[in-house]
Design goal:
With 240 residues, this protein is an all-alpha fold. Among the domains are: 103 residues, Tetratricopeptide repeat domain (Serine Threonine Protein Phosphatase 5, Tetratricopeptide repeat, Alpha Horseshoe), CATH 1.25.40; 56 residues, no CATH class. Helix 2 runs parallel beside helix 4, helix 7 packs antiparallel against helix 8 and helix 9 packs antiparallel against helix 10. The protein starts with a helix and ends in a 23-residue tail after the last helix. The protein is 72% helix and 0% strand.
């Protein structure tokens, strides 16, 4: 037998001896690992069941959101908030909070809507739905007649959510507030930019209409937006 084979055999017997010596510790470690796996699996199962229950509760409400011919009543903000309270920490509860804010806004309860939108931003600021909540909070402020606060909220929205789908609507709303405050030049500038850059979109169409209406009432605004005349190609050459 070669010395290499002898060394391998010795190492193997040493390993078996180590296992025999530490058998009790190995059994304990194995048992601990099994317990850990069981605990993790149980937590995940409970989380899944909790999320499933929350989704079911939310779906039951969403089915009845529109009033039907059978007289079924629409879900209220309170109905959605019950899901938030009963199933806190779930994705369904997150959506329910935003739906509660939307329901309050639809019912004309703008102060409550603002509070709920702002609560959503505090609790779920990194959510994919945060932009909708921020825009909703600004709209709720505007609907309460708090134009200065709403203007700031719309401007902050444009900075924080510059890639959000609602950014053009936020700009349009801000311009509308400028117009209501007789800040016509500021409003006209935004309308003009939106109409030019977003051709074909709903916001661009609205901006173009409001721009034309504002221009009709204040013709002097057109002078600040006159394009530079093109240089004529027929101009005489300048002699050296």
């Amino acid at each position: 037998m070669s010395s290499e084979t002898t060394d391998d055999s010795s190492s193997w017997f040493e390993f078996l001896g180590w296992i025999e010596t530490n058998k009790r510790n190995l059994v304990r470690a194995g048992a601990g690992l099994l317990i850990l796996v069981f605990v993790v699996a149980t937590i995940r199962w409970k989380s899944y069941q909790t999320e499933l229950a929350a989704n079911s509760a939310l779906l039951a409400l969403k089915v009845s959101v529109p009033a039907t011919a059978t007289g079924e009543s629409a879900a209220t903000a309170g109905d959605f908030l019950k899901i938030v309270d009963l199933h806190g920490g779930t994705a369904a509860a997150e959506r329910a909070l935003l739906l509660a804010a939307g329901a309050s806004f639809t019912d004309g309860k703008y102060t409550e809507a603002q509070a709920q939108f702002e609560r959503f931003l505090r609790e779920h600021g990194d959510s994919a739905l945060a932009a909708s909540a921020a825009f909703g909070a600004a709209a709720a402020l505007e609907s309460q007649g708090k134009s200065d606060e709403a203007l700031t909220a719309y401007q902050n929205f444009q900075t924080r959510f510059s890639r959000a789908a609602q950014v053009d609507q936020a700009r349009l709303s801000a311009a509308r507030i400028h117009e209501s405050k007789n800040q016509h030049e500021a409003a006209f500038k935004v309308y003009d930019e939106l109409a030019r850059a977003g051709a074909g979109t709903s916001a661009a169409s609205q901006a173009a209409q409001r721009k034309q209406r504002l221009l009709s009432a204040h013709p002097e605004l057109g002078k600040t937006n006159t394009p530079v005349a093109a240089v004529s190609t027929n101009a005489p050459a300048v002699k050296p």
